[in-house]
């Protein structure tokens, strides 16, 4: 999964990264930004699964970031020293709202909740695809390929060949880039 940390305090970002490395090292690829501008650039150029977002950034607010990248499809956790923004945060569909100073256990619980939500959404996509294929016996069939950070739904007729290499399989397509699973 891809996780973005947007906070103007480098010490806080460092703390979050250490917690993630200690508890979720095999789960996340971590990206960082320190302002509204760099956060918007990051989110527009990188497809992420989870965002941990500070509300008070040097050049604006976390809400400014979210307004600039609407619509978004990532899971959102706010982390801030200001509890008066909680209601507004949940209006932006935040999964959690963590007050600073952050307790490691509370941070880990929020991340675990986000992982469960993401896994449930991926399972729903896979089940929907399965039932769509099951009901369409003669139509084109789809396959869900899960890579480190993404789910790819591909048409089986687009596969040129598959190549196995130990525990990995490379799917090669007629008109698209290879996908390694």
- Rounded to an integer in angstroms, the radius of gyration calculated over CA atoms is 19 Å
Please write the CATH class name of the largest domain. Alpha Beta
Overall geometric form: elongated
Q: What's the structural domain tally?
A: 2
* Ends apart, CA distance between termini: 14 Å
The secondary-structure element order is: EHEHEEEHEHEHEEEEE
Provide the CATH architecture of the largest domain. 3-Layer(aba) Sandwich
SS element count, helices:
5
Short description:
The protein is of the alpha/beta class and 181 residues long. It is 39% helix and 29% strand.
For the structure shown, list the relevant keywords.
181 residues; 39% helix; 2 domains; Rossmann fold; three-stranded antiparallel sheet; five-stranded parallel sheet; 12 strands; alpha/beta
């Amino acid at each position: 999964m891809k996780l973005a940390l947007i906070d103007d305090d480098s010490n806080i970002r460092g703390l979050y990264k250490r917690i993630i490395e200690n508890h979720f090292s095999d789960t996340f690829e971590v990206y960082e930004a320190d302002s509204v501008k760099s956060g918007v650039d990051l989110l527009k150029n990188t497809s992420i699964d989870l965002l941990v977002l500070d509300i008070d950034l040097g050049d604006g607010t976390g809400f400014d970031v979210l307004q600039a990248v609407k619509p978004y499809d990532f899971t959102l956790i706010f982390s801030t020293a200001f509890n008066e923004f909680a209601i507004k945060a949940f209006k932006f569909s935040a999964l959690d709202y963590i007050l600073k100073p952050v307790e490691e256990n509370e941070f880990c619980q929020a991340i675990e909740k986000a992982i469960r939500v993401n896994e449930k959404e991926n399972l729903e996509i896979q089940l929907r695809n399965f039932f769509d294929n099951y009901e369409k016996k003669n139509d084109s069939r789809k396959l869900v390929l899960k890579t480190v950070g993404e789910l790819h739904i591909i048409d089986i007729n687009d596969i040129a060949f598959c190549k196995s290499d130990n525990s990995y399989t490379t799917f090669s397509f007629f008109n698209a880039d290879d996908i390694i699973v």
